[in-house]
Amino acid sequence: MDIKLFQLQSLTREEFLEHQNLGHFKAAIVPIGSTEQHLNHLSMSMDIDMSRYIAHQVAEKLYPNVLITSPVSFGIAEHHMYFPGTISAKPGSFLSIIFDLLESLLRHGIKKILLLNGHGGNVSPIEGVYEQWKLHLIATQNNSINLFDNKIINDHSEYMDAILNNTNNNIDIRFNSYWDFIPQDMVDLILETKEYPGHGGEFETSLAMYALPHIVRMDKVQSSNEIGIQKSSSDKGEKLSIQSINGVVNSINEMLITK
Ligand SMILES: [Zn+2]
């Protein structure tokens, strides 16, 4: 079989171990998104499908170094609940799943993990707890470091420094949305609306037209009165996608420099 990327849920336990013993998938990408209305021209899977698309492209480029986990397809979307079909996870439930996923991966020896998000509503909740998660996970899951290197710890900032800046720490957990890797000046050149990520506008619609054409209702794009939707194109989506993919590749490569 011609495998070009690894997806956790597609492997058996034996295959997982075999690949780990061969030094494969030292890093994991966790695609995170939402299941929520995206107007009348994009399906509800837009956000998770886009983060999965980027993750898959990156995993192919970095094969065999990257494992993609099962997607976290539900996100925090109370603000879309007026519209039929939207599913919203409450912040506590959502954050619990993400944390448990991180802890599970670390317990299986995967120390470099990128949470790759595709939904704006997930950003603030994750950023709010992320530093606390890192401290907890590095302190409890990292067997390879002497946390304090015989230093005397006098206050909490020294404690945080000892954990986060210990050069022997080999856990690297990052959180990014896929659009973090696309600079505003590039968006300004490509998009007439210059808005991103937005919601179902020129940015997302262009990306979907290029990367996920099966989720786009082109008749609704053409009949839309919204300027951003009308101005969307697959060419714009291609440029934005490539930028994001290259940015994620660089970030994973940075993570892989340390063992
Ligand atoms: Zn979206």
Write the layout of secondary structure elements.
Layout: E1 6-7, H1 13-21, E2 27-32, H2 46-61, E3 66-68, H3 91-107, E4 112-117, H4 123-141, H5 156-164, E5 172-177, H6 184-190, H7 202-211, H8 218-222, H9 227-230, H10 234-257
Parallel strand pairs: 1-3, 2-3, 2-4, 4-5
Helix pairs in contact: 2-10, 3-4, 7-10
Bound molecules: zinc ion (ZN).
Short note summarizing the structure:
This protein has 259 residues and is of the alpha/beta class.
What does this structure look like?
- The protein is globular.
- It has a five-stranded parallel β-sheet, sandwiched between helices.
- The protein has helices at 13-21, 46-61, 91-107, 123-141, 156-164, 184-190, 202-211, 218-222, 227-230, 234-257, and strands at 6-7, 27-32, 66-68, 112-117, 172-177.
- Helix 3 runs parallel beside helix 4 (123-141).
- The model has no long low-confidence stretch (mean pLDDT 95).
- By secondary structure, it is α/β, with parallel strands linked by helices.
- Helix 2 (46-61) links the parallel strand 2 and strand 3.
- Bound molecules: zinc ion (ZN).
- Zinc ion binds at residues 38, 46-47, 119, 199, 204.
Descriptive key words:
259 residues; alpha/beta; Rossmann fold; five-stranded parallel β-sheet; 46% helix; globular; binds zinc ion
Overall body shape: globular
What's the story with the biggest beta sheet? Answer: 5 strands, parallel
Q: What percent of residues are in strands? A: 5-15%
The H-and-E topology, N to C, reads as EHEHEHEHHEHHHHH
As laid out across the biggest beta sheet, the strand order is 1-3-2-4-5
The helix-and-strand class reads alpha/beta
Could you tell me the mean pLDDT? Answer: 95
Distance linking N and C termini? 29 Å
Cofactors, ions and other ligands in the entry: zinc ion
CATH superfamily placement:
Creatininase
Give the fraction of residues assigned to helices: 40-55%
Radius of gyration: 20 Å
Q: Which CATH class applies here?
A: Alpha Beta
CATH topology, which one?
A: Rossmann fold
Number of strands: 5
Parts with pLDDT < 50 across at least 5 consecutive residues:
none
Number of helices: 10
